[in-house]
Amino acid sequence: MAYYSDYDDYSNFNRPKYESVAERKNKAEEYVKKMAAKGIIFNPVVIDGKQIAKKWWGIMWCKNLERYSDYANRLPRGKSYCKNGNVIDLKILEGKIQALVMGSAKKPYILEIEIDPIDQVKALDISWQCSKKIHNVESLVQGEFPKDMEDLFFQENGLFPSPKEIHFFCMCPDSAKMCKHVASVLYAVGAKLDEDPLLFFKLRGIDINTLVEKAIDNRLENLLANAEKVTSRVYDEADIAELFQL
């Protein structure tokens, strides 16, 4: 995977000495500054306070991760890495997450996480359910979440990805199924969804514009249907005369 040309070959990587949280955080900040001086601007994940996520989207993304036993062993370290500013660059693309995480090496590890495309039946289902109520779509676009749609997302086989739908690669030497660097990036996604919930739809391959268009079309259809009902109740002159006994 090509990411930045500034990286050395990690094939002869030697495990570095232990570093404290403060040392690693300072190293991450210095590296970001160093690369900025070279014209390479990163998008670091900065956590304000103790919670990684504070809004529905981010909280539920993180909660979804934590309900899977496959990830249980590495999530605590990953959460710590995320909170301490080790995710120095994060890009959420369609079906893909690219990131850099500062570990104990001199340079950050390159990561890529792929999310399987969402099942089209699920995509059509959410499009249909959202479009029935224009205020639901308006809430989604504004970064809020309609509570009456919560089960659609956060249920078994819902719209949040399951472990079998998540595939990851990290350049670190850790042989575990999921390393702490990958876990930190998955948590960082939760923080980014707090800022921009529409990134969820981008990551899962759902076209939000189509969603909005369907909602508007449904609203127009409802308005026209209501207008026809009102029109059908208009009385002619004979009806009016009879009604008022003229």
Layout of helices and strands, plus pairs?
Layout: H1 21-37, H2 56-66, H3 75-83, E1 87-93, E2 96-101, E3 109-115, H4 120-131, H5 134-141, H6 150-153, E4 166-170, H7 180-195, H8 198-204, H9 208-232, H10 237-243
Antiparallel strand pairs: 1-2, 2-3, 3-4
Structure description:
By secondary structure, the chain is α+β, with helices and mostly antiparallel strands. The protein has helices at 21-37, 56-66, 75-83, 120-131, 134-141, 150-153, 180-195, 198-204, 208-232, 237-243; strands spanning 87-93, 96-101, 109-115, 166-170. Strands 1-2-3-4 form a 4-stranded antiparallel β-sheet. The longest helix is centred in the last third of the chain and has 25 residues, at 208-232. The chain starts with 20 loop residues before the first helix and ends with a helix.
Nutshell version of this structure?
With 246 residues, the protein is an alpha+beta fold. Helix content is 47%, strand content 10%. It is globular.
Q: Whole-number radius of gyration?
A: 25 Å
Secondary structure tally, helices: 10
Determine the fraction of residues in helical runs and give it as a percent range: 40-55%
The total count of strands amounts to 4
The N- to C-terminal Cα distance equals 86 Å
Apparent shape: globular
Round the mean pLDDT to the nearest integer and report it.
77
Main-sheet strand order equals 1-2-3-4
Largest sheet report: 4 strands, antiparallel
Strand content: 5-15%
Helix/strand order, N-terminal first: HHHEEEHHHEHHHH
Low-confidence stretches: 1-13
The structure class reads: alpha+beta
